[in-house]
Write a structure and sequence with these properties.
The longest helix is centred in the first third of the chain and has 37 residues. The N terminus is likely disordered. The chain is of the alpha+beta class. A hairpin with a 5-residue loop joins strand 2 and strand 3. It is rod-shaped, with a radius of gyration of 33 Å.
């Protein structure tokens, strides 16, 4: 009879060891999985400029929703710098750097009507911070 309790004690020790090993693996898995699951719903807050800083610039260049349906009139300005052409909007005076303006419209002082949208293209540093790179479309020359 003394042999039976010893065997049972050995089986119990093996079972406890298996339970502990599986419990450790579960904890390790959760340790790596939980942060990823928690990060899925996390977004970074959007930082906005104070209203008094933004007020002067919002009026100059309209938002994308307005741009898609609006025809703008501007004067083409030619320069000898790397920023060789800018379009000055007649209604607001805002300056646009057209990345895709056809050469036939690149006439200094030429007045054009056009639509424009955002672009990921960069503008030369010489253009300055007061101009915005845009992609123009539906360009029509009004006068030269």
């Amino acid at each position: 009879m003394s042999n039976t309790p010893a065997k049972q004690g050995g089986k119990t020790t093996v079972r406890k060891q298996n339970f502990i090993e599986s419990n450790v693996m579960t904890k390790i898995t959760l340790l790596f999985l939980v942060p990823f699951l928690l990060a899925c719903g996390v977004t970074q807050p959007v930082v906005t400029a104070p209203v008094d800083v933004v007020e002067g610039t919002v009026e100059e260049v309209p938002t994308n929703a307005v741009i898609d349906q609006t025809i703008f009139t501007g004067i083409v300005r030619m320069y000898k710098s790397p920023c060789n052409v800018l379009i000055e909007l007649m209604d607001s005076g805002a300056k646009l750097y057209p990345v895709n303006l056809d050469e036939m419209f690149m006439v200094d002082g030429g007045v054009i009507e056009f639509k424009f949208g955002p672009t990921r293209a960069m503008q030369p540093e010489e253009c300055g911070a007061d101009s915005k790179p845009v992609a123009v479309r539906d360009v029509v020359r009004l006068k030269h």
